[in-house]
Amino acid sequence: MKGVILAGGTGSRLFPLTAAVSKQLLPVYDKPMIYHPLTTLMLAGIREILLISTPHDLPGFQRLLGDGGRLGLQITYAAQEHPNGLAEAFVIGADHVRGGPSALVLGDNIFHGAGFGDLLRRRAAEVASGDAGCVLFGYPVRDPRRYGVGEAAPDGTLLSIEEKPEHPRSDRAITGLYFYDDRVVDIATRITPSARGELEITDVNRAYLEQGRARLQDLGRGFAWLDTGTHESLMEAGQYVRVLENRQGIRIACVEEVALRMGYIDPDTCHALGARQTGSGYGEYVMAVADQFRSSVRTR
Question: Is the full-model pTM beyond 0.90?
Fold first, then answer.
């Protein structure tokens, strides 16, 4: 499975913070926002990733992440000239994902929960094997009228999708994480722009729904889904990360640690990456993780 991160848009709701820098490069407490969707894909077992952003913002992501080689990844880049809808990611990234399953994650979505990586890999395998055409991820929200809402049968089969319904059929908002089979490019290139002039991801999802091949994975109790599109939600996300990290002594969305634990890099490489960030608590943490991992391997 290959991955796509869509990190475009103007971030206008966060002006003036985003007047000079991409929203997805803003900090969520102790690391750039983009680390969160990146590690989501990494936890799913994905190593070939296309990052799509505006022509203005792409150099910033390239300076931060490079080609991904230091993390055992292959990261490439493409420009979205205008925010023409989420489904345009599969038009822009057609050559990257065509011929196999793929995952799309939005650059401002944060996911966290115990066992999340195992869950992602199971659902990715389900799509890769052909058992499902697409897997969407739903999260219970207080006011589903503000979201795209999915209704599912007890076995997870998606029954309906509604955009900001006046009378929602469920409280499960569709999050910014999507798994698709190899037909997504053909579907995305066939849909027409909506009334607001965008290629809607809901239209892609509805195509799978009509085929009876869409599933909804419930992210319920024990999971967190945070959208960072406003000043308030950005601050709330930072507070959430700060509290968990300070209480548990771990770092959420630490790309070096995830790469190490997924077997993409070895402890020596991980330690060297931390040493490059000496002087920060983050760098010290990365080196400590590498040392602990090396010790645990020796004692097995």
Answer: yes
